[in-house]
Amino acid sequence: MEAQQGDGERWEDEKGPAPEKAAVDDSVAEKISWKMVVFDDLFPRLSANGGKLRCTRSRSVAVLSALYCSHVFSAWGDRMWQFLVALLLALLYPGSLLLPAVFGLVFAMLPALLGTVLGDFVDQNHRMRVVWISLLVQNTLVCACSVALAVLFGLNLDLCSDVPLYLFGILTAIVIVLGASANLATVVNTIAVEKDWVVVIADKNKDILASLNANMRRIDLICKLLAPAAAGAILQFTGPLTTTIVVASWNVVSFSAELGLIWLVYRWVPALAVKKLRKSAATETADEPLIEDAEEGEAEEGALGEGEEMKIFDEEKEKDKNTQVKIVKSQAGSATSHPTWCSRLLAPMLSLRYGWSTYWRQEIALAGVSMAVIYLTVLGFSGVTAGYFLTQGLPNSAIGAGQGVGAILGVAGTIAYPSIRRRIGTVRTGMFGISCQLGMLSLCLVAAVIPGERVENMAEGYFSAHCPADDVCDGLLPSPPPYLPSSLPSP
């Protein structure tokens, strides 16, 4: 009995602590595993040459950190500007939604009409050239638009002041055109980085591509959450003139930061220097092959070192290879390397024609149109919606915070997307997301059957300025709405 008791005690002493230690080790391992999963999702280990060779962990973190930081600067500036410009235009035209509505129309119409031209510019130029030109144009136009707004607010040139109507119209037209044109450069930069650079960096790995797309989208939504709230607070507590100065200063600083960070990504990923350039629609023929930026085999040979570790080009060797351009002439020999001025003028028109005809031949053409029709509503925080809230007396900070609530849900979607895609696939994930979106939007139909009171006088309402006599000397504060909230029609 004593021996058995002694054996039992020995088993408890020797064997007993073992399961407890194993449990501790398992919990620590689970924590470490969870942290590694999150880290791998944010900074997946990159590869090259179709996944045959892998990049070092430190180099992957450096490349993706530079990419993410560059996107933060870009997304923050875009979200802040898109939120502020509608509110500033509403302040220039008190009590009306006319200017925000016109700006929203031009803002969305230009990319729709010139989308194929923008795509051709991306396809026909080197990656780094596309990015730096788009960044330069975008930030320059936003700064110019901010200066025009600063002039309007600094001189109190709103519609209710004594300024000549033609001068007010010219300045507001300049603001709208510059702001909408800056959006074209934003579209070019978005196409280049999110649709081209990210694909090359992922190196045809679907899991890495899904993670990078989710992370880029997550950054955009976080900026959508924070930037409008910060911009609304600045506008609320400092006034429109100071806000325009802050926006202009931000674009000057962010341009240098964005360009420097994206240049580091370009230097650290040699595959980005390899691109097949497509000729314009005016000079392209069926017999002409594509123009190649550098020989792929030669670039890959210099991009990869011994074993499975990626090495960076020697500076002189990389410079030589990046400057090589291989132009394969047509066998027919009828094409010229320098198109005439007439063909250059016709190129955008031909691109529009070919682009739309190509789009309508796709199987997803009607599906794309149906998705676009959803955004014809005012259910999102667009410029018109923000301007309407402003006419109803909501503070700017509250409007920005409301937009941030929607961004929080969007961030949650980007977190859930990679795991859902791995479980049910990309197609089912897309169908699930679209179904949830339509389900949420269908709840808004309830507002259509809720009884509301009719507005008798619509001539002085949504699109007519409200200029009481006491507002003329009160600056550019939002004028009270010319109608009571209780008299608004149901949506």
Automatic annotation (TrEMBL):
Its main localization is membrane
Does the keyword section mention Signal? Answer: no
Say yes or no: keyword RNA-binding present: no
Query: What family does the entry list?
Result: Belongs to the ferroportin (FP) (TC 2.A.100) family. SLC40A subfamily.
Name the chain's protein: Solute carrier family 40 member
The record lists the membrane-crossing segments as 61-77, 97-118, 130-153, 165-185, 221-239, 245-269, 364-391, 397-417, 429-450
GO MF annotation terms: iron ion transmembrane transporter activity
Region (Disordered), start-end ranges = 1-23
List the subcellular locations.
Answer: Membrane
Indicate how the chain sits in the lipid bilayer: Multi-pass membrane protein
GO cellular component terms given for this protein:
membrane
Question: Any idea what job this protein has?
Answer: May be involved in iron transport and iron homeostasis.
Which portions of the chain have biased composition (kind: Basic and acidic residues)?
Answer: 7-23
Q: Which UniProt keywords apply?
A: Ion transport, Membrane, Transmembrane, Transmembrane helix, Transport
